[in-house]
């Protein structure tokens, strides 16, 4: 493994940072999250047209840039620094890879070029608080998380050659506004129980969507109700009859998404640390800068070490996710979320009274840390699953 960034990767990071610095300051972020869409459509258009960000990790045959997950993760480190509220995570990290992996040629040709152009956003709708389970980050995804044949979740049935979905998904990232929903639904009953993925247009008859109040406003969520909605099976009706390919695709997407999220969290943690260091250099107490006190230096040094360790883990996970045969995204995500929680918490504490105010941006990073753990963690479950997968606590005979 060559740990150095390529010239292309450095250019992606530099160009994106410059654009976000101009278009996504604290005031712009606040205005975007208060908008009905939950993001700034003009910024999303600029990211798509100027940088091709939505299709960065999609192949050129689909209109994308042909880069790997590594480049997408490095780009998300920059969006994480400014907490940019965009559909990038829901569309390009969660939904688009599933369409690319499972979709028929016709489905890929109809949807992915529009995703790349930024004219179509998508969201992955997983019933209940089961996103991390579906993505195999905190446990195996071969259970009944999509409904299990019982009431609740989303049920799919086929009548007269048409798939119909009925149910509710409570927490869907960007679900209130996405033009396309990739819905995980249970079908087959108890005899042939399986989970499949379906495509539903956001404006389909029977779809009712409501924006929910989220702890982290920069990650807007929607409540999606499906009332006998007509859907298209992702992959076609002759595809994965047992659902095993779907589960494998979700697990693979989950590992790559965890690596991307880890890089994003590292970017946010790094910026929170940067803001804190700038503040303690300026704030004076007892005739000297607060940052000159040894206790403050030690606390910030601990944060710095955590952030750098998390950056190393996140970059390795992003490299491994780009086809190098290792699945370490969940472990890197745990490291990054812990670093972000520490950096954001210290930012609140060391900013003093101003750190608790609505006007200061420190609380946004704290909410991102807490919100990400609720959505993709918690840290101890991510680590526990990684330990089980690696067989860390299995009993083995030791030769004497």
Uncertain residue ranges:
none
How widely separated are the two ends? 37 Å
The percent range for strand residues is 15-25%
Mean pLDDT: 90
> How many β-strands, per DSSP?
9
Compute the CA-based radius of gyration. Answer: 22 Å
Element order: H for helix, E for strand: HHHHHHEHEEEEEEHEEHHHH
Count the helices. How many? 12
State the helical fraction. Answer: 40-55%
Structural class assignment: alpha+beta
Helices and strands, with pairings:
Layout: H1 7-23, H2 26-34, H3 41-51, H4 69-81, H5 88-102, H6 105-117, E1 122-125, H7 131-134, E2 154-159, E3 162-173, E4 180-187, E5 194-201, E6 207-212, E7 221-233, H8 244-282, E8 284-285, E9 288-289, H9 294-321, H10 329-350, H11 362-376, H12 379-390
Parallel strand pairs: 1-4
Antiparallel strand pairs: 2-3, 3-7, 4-5, 5-7, 6-7, 8-9
Helix pairs in contact: 1-4, 4-8, 4-9, 5-6, 5-8, 8-9, 8-10, 8-11, 9-10, 10-11, 10-12
Protein architecture, described:
There is one protein chain. The chain starts with 6 loop residues before the first helix and ends in a 10-residue tail after the last helix. A hairpin with a 2-residue loop joins strand 8 (284-285) and strand 9. Helix 4 (69-81) packs antiparallel against helix 9 (294-321) and helix 8 packs antiparallel against helix 9. The model has no long low-confidence stretch (mean pLDDT 90). It is built from twelve helices and nine strands. The protein has 400 residues and is an alpha+beta fold. The protein has helices at residues 7-23, 26-34, 41-51, 69-81, 88-102, 105-117, 131-134, 244-282, 294-321, 329-350, 362-376, 379-390; strands at 122-125, 154-159, 162-173, 180-187, 194-201, 207-212, 221-233, 284-285, 288-289. The relative contact order is 0.11. Strands 1, 2, 3, 4, 5, 6 and 7 form a seven-stranded mixed beta sheet that branches. The protein has a two-stranded antiparallel sheet with strand order 8-9. The chain is globular and about 80 Å long.
């Amino acid at each position: 493994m060559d740990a150095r960034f390529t010239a292309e990767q450095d250019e992606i990071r530099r160009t994106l940072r410059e654009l976000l610095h101009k278009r996504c300051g604290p005031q712009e972020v606040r205005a975007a999250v208060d908008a009905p869409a939950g993001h700034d459509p003009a910024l999303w258009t600029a990211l798509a047209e100027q940088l091709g960000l939505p299709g960065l990790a999609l192949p050129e045959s689909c209109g994308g840039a042909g880069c790997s997950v590594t480049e997408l993760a490095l780009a998300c480190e920059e969006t994480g620094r400014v907490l940019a509220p965009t559909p990038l995570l829901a569309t390009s990290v969660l939904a688009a890879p599933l369409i690319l992996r499972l979709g028929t040629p016709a489905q890929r040709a109809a949807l992915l070029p529009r995703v790349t152009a930024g004219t179509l956003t998508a969201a992955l709708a997983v019933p209940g608080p089961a996103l991390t389970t579906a993505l195999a980050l905190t446990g195996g995804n071969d259970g009944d998380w999509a409904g299990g044949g019982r009431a609740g979740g989303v049920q799919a049935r086929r009548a007269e050659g048409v798939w119909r979905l009925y149910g509710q998904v409570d927490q869907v990232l960007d679900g209130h506004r996405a033009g396309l929903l990739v819905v995980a639904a249970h079908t087959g009953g108890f005899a042939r129980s399986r989970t499949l993925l379906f495509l539903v247009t956001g404006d389909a008859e029977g779809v009712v969507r409501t924006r929910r109040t989220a702890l982290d406003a920069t990650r807007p969520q929607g409540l999606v109700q499906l009332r006998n909605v007509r859907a298209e099976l992702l992959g076609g009706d002759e595809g994965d009859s047992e659902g095993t390919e779907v589960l494998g695709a979700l697990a693979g997407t989950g590992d790559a998404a965890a690596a991307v999220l880890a890089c994003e969290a590292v970017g946010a943690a790094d910026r929170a640390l940067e803001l804190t260091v700038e503040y303690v250099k300026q704030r004076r107490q007892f005739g000297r800068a607060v940052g000159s006190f040894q206790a403050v230096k030690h606390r910030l040094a601990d944060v710095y070490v955590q952030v750098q360790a998390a950056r190393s883990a996140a970059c390795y996970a992003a490299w491994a996710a780009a086809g190098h045969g290792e699945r370490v995204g969940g472990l890197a995500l745990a490291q990054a979320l812990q670093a972000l929680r520490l950096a954001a918490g210290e930012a609140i504490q060391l900013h003093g009274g101003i750190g608790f105010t609505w006007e200061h941006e420190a609380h946004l990073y704290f909410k991102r840390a807490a919100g990400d753990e609720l959505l993709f963690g918690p840290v101890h479950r991510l680590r526990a699953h990684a330990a089980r997968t690696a067989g860390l606590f299995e009993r083995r005979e030791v030769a004497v």
